[in-house]
Amino acid sequence: MTQRALRSSGEHTPGRRRPARIDAGSELDPVHPIKLPATAVRTSGLTAAEVAERIARGEVNDVPVRSSRSVHEIVRANVFTRFNLIIGVLWLIMLFVAPIQDSLFGFVIIANTGIGIVQEWRAKKTLDSLAVIGEAKPTVRRDGVAAEISTSEIVLGDLVELGPGDKVVVDGAVAEADNLEIDESLLTGEADPVLKQAGDPVMSGSFVVAGGGAFSATKVGREAYAAQLAEEASRFTLVQSELRSGISTILKYVTWMMVPTAIGLIISQLVVKNSNVRDSIARTVGGIVPMIPEGLVLLTSVAFAIGVVRLGRKQCLVQELPAIEGLARVDVVCLDKTGTLTEGGMDVTEVRPLNGADDPYIRQVLSALGASDPRPNASLQAIIDAYPSPNGEAWRCTEALPFSSARKYSGAAFVETDGRSSTWLLGAPDVLLPDEDPALGEIEQLNEQGLRVLLLARAEGELEGPEIAHGAVPTALIVLEQRLRPDAGDTLRYFADQRVATKVISGDNAVSVGAVAGKLGLPGAEHTLDARRLPTDPDDMATAMEENAVFGRVTPQQKREMVAALQSRGHTVAMTGDGVNDVLALKDADIGVSMGSGSEATRAVAQIVLLNNSFATLPSVVAEGRRVIGNITRVATLFLTKTVYSVLLAILVVCFQVEYPFLPRHLTLLSTLTIGVPAFFLALAPNKERARPHFVRRVMRYSVPSGVIAGIATFVTYLVARHYYTGTEALGAETSAATLTLFLVSMWVLAIIARPYTWWRIVLVASMGAAFLIVLMVPWLQNFFALKLVGAVIPWTAVGIAVVAAAALEFTWRLVSRRFPA
């Protein structure tokens, strides 16, 4: 049986340092995860009977893994809104006092709410199915057999195995420790990994950076330290983002404007004019309803939900919805080479002996090193594949030092078949060798070809000693060839075309990383920098980050500092990675992107998980985010233009003491043709423009002047018509003329927003105009919407005023674009 088989079966080779462990005995304290007596856990784990007993007692890790809110929450969030309440009350009033035509706005709201519920429910189903695919499955030992189970199936007292990159899923106490180093920075803020011994507590939310072992669950379910945080973080919620917070700010301003204006309009129509009560109520409601941008929130939710569904089809799990928006704002993408630009696997292409070392002996050393690590990284796995453990007598491992990203090497001590002892290190040549060593020149040439080189060195002394690498004798160079991802080059070119800077940050040799990046066509790949020479001053580091594209020998803590340095210069940073050394940087980046095959820890902290492990999916995510933000900015201008002209018209009506010019049916028609239908299509259209900040300012700078121009033009037409028409049918003719002007001006706003034109945008705008023309021409539609143009003078006057307003719109938009750039 090989060393690896012995380790995986729970047995241990005689003479090898036995991992510290807690032996069988009393049950763990489920409340206080403190250092426990050494008689707390059986190394074989719980029996099936004990598991069943704990399940019966409810001692199960029953925190639901929720990637979406429930159907009940979706319905409640879409139905019970402030504006739905206002519109609902007004709708009930209109059902009693006016014809059904004036109550159409209520049916529109019901339809919109239904669409929102259905779309979010679709997104929920997509997210739930993807969450199951991407769910971490810890390895639990029961009845002496290790098996992967769902996190929710862990029971109190379960023995959970740990290895590099594994996330601690419940609170517990260490039962076995083999150089077990756990990073608790996400919980405590301390950056240095903690070396754990038997009996030490471990907290859910921390993760393993080196070594291995096992722990016994002392707290499960909602009692676990990070359970509430994990549950909250994994929900499908439209949490804070610039887009949604900006819309909330706009709605707050709208409410402030709407309340006093609506009160003034009610008094004006019901008291001052003292006209027909039913007609006054209808016109009052007609003035209040369009002030509410009710479809804006709906369209934002629908756009996000459809984005989730689209990305789900590409096996992309969006764990936090604003990540779609955030990645669209990104201007710097930091990539980890291994697993992102290159595939996870590597191949040993050559072994070069040094200092007269014997080639067969080197092969024995490499075989023994491979057998000494139960959880090999990609480099060691390539060595294992090339030099598997012999079937006969193998070297006996007495001590092992797992690979650490901070240390850059691993090691092991052996008793060889002839009884001699030897200690070996395997890792980065430029870390293990002094700067003046002649072998570094040879290594540099290999790195320039994009090859990865490891140094095998013989050492003296204890492996855990801080000076173990000093004085190590170089024995061989192991040359590894990395497998480039076939789609990585196209993805890098996409980011270059989109003016998104790409930084490759790796723990490997900088020259080697630069060569790989150069093969893939990364702009600036020739600008490489060894992170050991990186300035410590944040401002100088930010300058170095902006001037260079490839960084090698980067430690996990440096990755975090590099992200912070870029952010200090105002950059929006996305970080991709799949290894445990990427966790801190992923957490601090504006957007963290993890590969589906990455460690549990990286998947837990990332906002986006690429379940298909394809870096090529990122452009789709960027494009989806840009589509959402760019289009919502467009349609928000439409909605808020309506709000501005509605408020202005109400104020003018109060000031001039006249009837409100419109009934609800008129504004329902106008809103549907100039906002509702076009906004739906525009919100889902492709949009490649990079998202820019200051959403509220960018929307208001166009919607306010547009709304003012539309409101003034409409009211001028209304006043001209009031002086022209007389008799009992005059108000209907005045309303029709004002409606014509408002429609034409609103259509011009739509025509501006629809730019740049494509065939379908032209068809969209033209079909809305044709629909209004049909309403004016078909008699029963004229009667239904109470629209009938009388004579030729005022209708053509309305058209003329609309033309002047359109010219004013063009001039104003161009002036605003020059004077107030976003």
Automatic annotation (TrEMBL):
Keywords of the record: Membrane, Translocase, Transmembrane, Transmembrane helix
Membrane topology of the entry: Multi-pass membrane protein
Domain of life: Bacteria
P-type ATPase A domain mapped to chain residues: 138-232
Positions of transmembrane segments: 79-98, 104-121, 253-272, 292-311, 635-660, 666-685, 706-725, 737-755, 762-781, 793-816
The keyword Membrane belongs to this UniProt entry's keyword annotation: yes
Signal peptide range: none
Residue ranges the record marks as coiled coil: none
Nucleotide-binding listed as a keyword: no
PROSITE patterns from the UniProt entry: ATPASE_E1_E2
Major localization listed first in the record, in broad terms: membrane
Region (Disordered): 1-28
Cellular compartments annotated: Cell membrane
Record NCBIfam families: ATPase_P-type
Name this protein carries in UniProt: HAD-IC family P-type ATPase
Organism: Streptomyces yanii
Lineage: Bacteria, Bacillati, Actinomycetota, Actinomycetes, Kitasatosporales
